[in-house]
Structures are given as C-alpha cells and as structure tokens.
Design goal:
about 50% strand; four-stranded antiparallel β-sheet
C-alpha cells in the first residue's frame, strides 16, 4: 500500500529549469526520509538529495549543491526537487525512494521506489 509517484519530468533546453514532484501514499514525511536518485543508460543509480523532518535536515551529493534544491510539504505528503541550470548530462530517469532517515545515498538502503520520471536536457 506504500506508493510513490514521480511527476514533472520532460524535455528542457540546456540552462533551463524543472521541478519534480514525489507524491507519497501509505507513508508520512513525519517518520520517513525521501531521497532523489537518477539513472542514465549504462550508468549506476546515483543519489542526488535527501530530506527528512525528524531530524529536520537536507542532504546533497556534492555535484548537486548549488543547482538542485530539495523541499517538502508535509501536509500534502509531497517532496519536490527543483533543478536549475540543467545540463545534457542531467538526462536520466529520476526516482524518489523512502528511507528511515538521511545519511546514505546507497540505493540498496532505500525501501520503496516510484516508477520514475524521464528528464531530457537537449537543444
């Protein structure tokens, strides 16, 4: 009954922006952390960012700092990833996933996953 649904992906030009959403059902952001990942063809799944409410914190992979911003709306049970200054190498399928708390970007340590949303950065 735990379900995560990503949305907001699409085609964007280099330098553009996109906001992804992760809508949660069956879990609450009061007790679970949410991580964002991406996977491009031929590459490993890459952790991008994580957010939790208890403790209140955000975490970013070094390469994402300054361009990507994670946020949450606990009432709506939704997590967002604002992506700015997008580059062609950002092209990938983007996923959200649950964990008890932030502190790891190892995909195997996350429990429930969404279906992913495609982001394509191209002119």
């Amino acid at each position: 009954q735990v379900q995560l649904v990503e949305s907001g992906g699409g085609l964007v030009q280099p330098g553009g922006s996109l906001r992804l959403s992760c809508k949660l059902t069956g879990v609450t952001l009061d007790y679970y952390a949410i991580g964002w990942f991406r996977q491009a063809p031929g590459k490993e799944r890459e952790g991008l960012s994580c957010i939790s409410s208890s403790p209140a914190m955000t975490d970013y992979a070094d390469a994402m700092k300054g361009r990507f911003t994670i946020s949450s709306d606990n009432v709506k049970n939704t997590v967002y990833l604002q992506m700015n200054s997008l580059k062609p190498e950002d092209t990938a399928v983007y996923y959200c996933a649950t964990r008890f708390f932030c502190g790891s970007f190892a995909a195997a340590e996350y429990d429930h996953w969404g279906q992913g949303t495609q982001v394509t950065v191209s002119s």
